[in-house]
Amino acid sequence: MRHINYVITMIVLLALGVCSCKDKEKDTDEEVIYSTSTTNALVMSFSLKDNPNVSAKLDSVHFTIDPARGEIYNVDSLPVGTNVSSLLTTVRFSSSVREAKYYLTYSKNGTVMRDTITYRSTSTDSLNFTGSARLDVTSYDGSVTRSYNIHVNVHKSEPDTLSWPLTSRQDLPGAGSNNTAHRAIKWGNLVLSLLHNESGYHLSSATTPEGPWETIDFAGGFEPDVNSLTCSDNALYLLDTDGMLHTSTDGENWTTTGTQWQTLIGGYTDRVLGISVGDEPLLDEYPRREDFIPQAVPANFPLSGMSQLVMSENMWAVAPQAVLVGGVLADGTVSNKTWGYDGNTWAVLSNTSDALPALRDAILVSYLTYNVSIINYSAKPQDTWLVMGGYLADGTANRVTYTSTNQGITWSKGATSLQWPGHMPSMGGAQAIIDERSMSVNGAPRRRVTQPVTEWVVPYIYLFGGYAPSGELLNNVWCGVITRMTYKPTY
């Protein structure tokens, strides 16, 4: 009987103990996890609370959490000038935690300030992220504390500026005194530069626009029209001063084609396009395909002064498309049209509401710009055509950069960040060459990918030569890039 009473007593006590534990857990909304595992001090998400007085959609800014390095940061930096001295945060943890504290160090009126602020989900304590910030998270059982360095990144300069540093300007390769004419082209893996000055004609070559350059005296056996130099995929082409077309496969040995041309427009895959001389100007090609028939030049097609012909590919085109803008028509009118060539036919691409002014000797570049989200400040690259420089119909220099994001169908004035800086000279007839540089960062922090991005390619624009409003050849090679492209990629 005593044994039975003892068992009953123990059962009652155990039941009361269980009830007591359940009631204790019921008094709190937290999930209590007793463990020494470091996962119980993990930060699962971090965000800023909305504050339209600071910046729009502040609560949508994405923060990356790198638990291995103890880093929390926003890859897409906030706009220049964003005030991060008084922000509220929202933090979510992997489980219940005993304590989370911010340790902030910053400067105020020349005095170093140090704040220690306990984080609570309903906290109204503002945080100053202008200096260093650390968040220490202690697990519920107190056995583990994890530290996170927090970086609320703000752009120090406008990231979408197309910058042309004065320090990057170079002289034309082979330049001497009294330079009078110049032309640069990209041919396969080579950059070629043909220059005329008082000592003769000089052909330079390099694998990049930065050099080093190897320069030889041009010895083609004829006097070249320097500004006509162009190329197809497999050959170089050059007119002499009488308009006869010459070709070469190495730049040193030239042969005449026996055909006379008024204008060389540019190369398209295995042939060169231009305007040949006959009873009337003809849109022609060399070498001619079997079924090719030259066509009379339309009245609204430029005979001279058009931009360089630029190749482009897009998802809608069956074949690569070549594009040019502006130029001078047969009647002397300066054009504002964008023309495209698809391998068989020339056609006007731009519509009648085009904002592009009439231009001659404009610079056309196929490049990238960025569409920055106003929701979370992320930047998405988009194919963009740029038109820069050149001269208006009245002869004045154009210093406005125009953009098109639909293959030249419509144009608009580019953003302020894309306009030429004051130290860039006015110019027309410069040649733009895109050169891609590989960039790398050792030990780059993790991004939104499994492995950190440590290498990426940056396309730089090089502008060779060009002519001043006076007609003088400019002894310049300018290098430009959109600043954002040099930042470490987000993904």
Descriptive account of the structure:
By secondary structure, this protein is mostly beta strands. The protein folds into 2 domains: 38-151, Immunoglobulin-like, CATH 2.60.40; 162-486, Kelch-type beta propeller (Neuraminidase), CATH 2.120.10.80. Helices cover 5% and strands 38% of the residues. It has 1 helix and 33 strands. The protein has one helix spanning 2-26, and strands at 43-48, 64-66, 71-73, 89-93, 97-108, 111-118, 132-139, 145-151, 162-163, 181-187, 190-197, 200-206, 214-217, 230-231, 236-239, 244-248, 254-268, 271-276, 282-286, 295-296, 310-312, 321-325, 338-341, 346-348, 359-360, 363-372, 379-388, 391-392, 402-404, 412-413, 431-440, 455-464, 477-482. The protein has a 7-stranded antiparallel beta sheet, with no helix packed on it. A hairpin with a 5-residue loop joins strand 7 (132-139) and strand 8 (145-151). It is elongated and about 95 Å long. The model is unreliable at 1-35 and 442-452 (pLDDT under 50).
Q: What is this structure's SSE topology?
A:
Layout: H1 2-26, E1 43-48, E2 64-66, E3 71-73, E4 89-93, E5 97-108, E6 111-118, E7 132-139, E8 145-151, E9 162-163, E10 181-187, E11 190-197, E12 200-206, E13 214-217, E14 230-231, E15 236-239, E16 244-248, E17 254-268, E18 271-276, E19 282-286, E20 295-296, E21 310-312, E22 321-325, E23 338-341, E24 346-348, E25 359-360, E26 363-372, E27 379-388, E28 391-392, E29 402-404, E30 412-413, E31 431-440, E32 455-464, E33 477-482
Features:
single chain; 491 residues; mainly beta; Neuraminidase; 2 domains; 7-stranded antiparallel beta sheet; 6-stranded mixed beta sheet; 1 helix; 5% helix
